[in-house]
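Researcher: Good morning. I'm working through a list of sequences from a screen, and I'd like to move beyond sequence-only analysis. For each chain I'm collecting a predicted structure so we can compare shapes side by side. This is the next one on the list. No need for commentary yet; just the structure.
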Amino acid sequence: MKRRQKRVLQMAFLFMVALIFLPNVGLWSMYREKSLMKSHEPGEQGFPLGLNDGHIYTWTDGLRRRDWHDSESIRKDEQRVGKGEHGKPYPLIEDECDDSVYKENGFNIYVSNNIALDRSLPDIRHPNCKQKLYLENLPNTSIIIPFHNEGWSSLLRTIHSITNRTPDHLIAEIILVDDYSDR
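Model: Good morning. Structure tokens for this chain:
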């Protein structure tokens, strides 16, 4: 056999062995048991994955994961009705239509001022994302919001969305940076 052909066959063999036996690659990862059990107190029986809001689960890798979704808040938001709720359009009557309000902010500030600061938003996540679990111990974060001549209602709505939809202990601080506004 030529030396070059022999080298190609050796490399192909090593590649196949790696695909089969490396733990996070190839066939081995498909057969590795990945069971998810609810964490339980001593004396309690664990049970297979049945996601419930706020419960903690342990993956076989030893890392504890949690369902961070606030299902009750999501259900309450789905029940809300009103102008601008669920991201729906705000209906204007002819008397309220004024194109000059777009010049200052690039959107209709009159409409923005009449939408609730804590408005509901539709749940647009993919169905698989609704079952996603995240690590139990997440680092907190600082949220920085730069703005320039922003309409106050839209800025306050942003802050309300952050505080209403994020667990308190995950927010270290919210910093608003006025980028040289002239009003």
